[in-house]
């Protein structure tokens, strides 16, 4: 698989504040990556550094094989990191023609890109008449005019209504299905889960998890239990290496698994110890619960 972007031990400091802290990850061709983290976790700063608009303090990054200068590499990158900015009195197509002139790319792709973002029938409408969602879609069309290898988006659905959000996500998925690599920053777990194949979770500039979105949900779950003798129940479970930690919640004991264990095995194990359960539920933390746990302030 070919590398699109390699980030190694990247750090950005603003005075005493470390916005990005020793961050490393690699972007491979054809995948959809999310940088996920709460506000202020360093997502925009990371994108700014690799797009050469923010200076790094330490570490390295290189585009593609490492033999291309960042200046040349960025010609193969499409990015939207600020609010879409076009001339309000010009039409969609006129704005894109201007972008083609600035980027020195052919105007032939304008219709194709407008079609892709669902704006071909509005190509002659003035930008000022567009909704926020349409403006964002025009920005995506604009970023694609140079047929980039990778499309970078910072919070692409911020401020949009549910329909606008859905449209943007569908467009991102369509662009990805056509082979364009995507890197998007988002504070929305739901967005990353719906759109991305890979994720880097940031908290205060530090990477907490990097890998497949599916791999995020690697927890083995927990069991909520009740018996006549809660102390005996806890003591018995503590002897079993499958359990990592315990929490008392009202009249229930919650036992967190650190390795897979079938509920029937747990039941049998306890029964052999003479413990009969009056309540027994096995559940897995939702991805949201795990994300909040991971990113909560320590
Ligand atoms: N130009 C700057 N000068 C000083 N501090 C900055 C500057 N830009 C960002 N920061 C700080 O760096 C940290 C990371 O900010 P960044 O914008 O990268 O986070 P983010 O995850 O993109 O959050 P958001 O979604 O709120 O933009 C924050 O604490 C922010 O206040």
Automatic annotation (TrEMBL):
One of its Pfam families is ABC_tran
Q: Which Gene3D superfamilies match?
A: P-loop containing nucleotide triphosphate hydrolases
User: Which UniProt keywords are present, listed alphabetically?
Assistant: ATP-binding, Nucleotide-binding, Transport
Q: Which GO terms describe its molecular function?
A: ATP binding; ATP hydrolysis activity
Which SMART domains does this entry report, sorted A to Z?
A: AAA
Q: Which SUPFAM superfamilies match?
A: P-loop containing nucleoside triphosphate hydrolases (SSF52540)
Q: Which residues form the ABC transporter domain?
A: 5-229
| UniProt-listed InterPro entries | AAA+_ATPase (IPR003593), ABC_transporter-like_ATP-bd (IPR003439), ABC_transporter-like_CS (IPR017871), P-loop_NTPase (IPR027417)
Family indicated by similarity: Belongs to the ABC transporter superfamily.
Q: What is this protein called?
A: ABC-2 type transport system ATP-binding protein
Annotated organism of origin: Aequorivita viscosa
């Amino acid at each position: 698989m070919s590398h699109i972007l390699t980030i190694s031990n990247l750090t950005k400091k603003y005075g005493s504040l470390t916005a990005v802290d020793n961050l490393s990850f690699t972007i491979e061709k054809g995948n959809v990556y999310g940088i996920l983290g709460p506000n202020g976790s360093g997502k925009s700063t990371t994108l700014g550094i690799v797009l050469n608009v923010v200076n790094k303090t330490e570490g390295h990054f290189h585009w593609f094989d490492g033999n291309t200068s960042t200046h040349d590499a960025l010609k193969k990158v499409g990015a939207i990191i600020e609010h879409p900015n076009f001339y309000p009195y010009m039409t969609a197509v006129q704005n894109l023609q201007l972008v083609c002139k600035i980027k020195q790319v052919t105007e032939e792709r304008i219709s194709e890109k407008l079609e892709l973002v669902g704006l071909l029938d509005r190509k002659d409408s003035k930008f000022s008449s567009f909704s926020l969602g349409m403006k964002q879609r025009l920005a995506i069309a604009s970023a694609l005019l140079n047929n980039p290898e990778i499309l970078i988006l910072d919070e692409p659905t911020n401020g949009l209504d549910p329909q606008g959000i859905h449209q943007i996500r569908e467009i991102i998925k369509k662009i990805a299905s056509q082979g364009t690599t995507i890197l998007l920053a988002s504070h929305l777990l739901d967005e990353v889960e719906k759109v991305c194949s890979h994720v880097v979770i940031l908290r205060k500039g530090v990477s907490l998890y990097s890998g497949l979105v599916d791999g995020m949900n690697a927890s083995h779950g927990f069991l909520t239990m009740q018996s006549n003798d809660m102390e005996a129940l806890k003591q018995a479970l503590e002897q079993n290496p499958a359990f990592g930690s315990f929490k008392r919640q009202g009249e229930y004991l919650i036992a967190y698994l650190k390795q897979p264990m079938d509920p029937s095995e747990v039941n049998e194990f306890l029964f052999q110890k003479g413990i009969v359960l009056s309540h027994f539920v096995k559940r897995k933390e939702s991805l949201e619960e795990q994300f909040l746990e991971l990113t909560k302030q320590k």
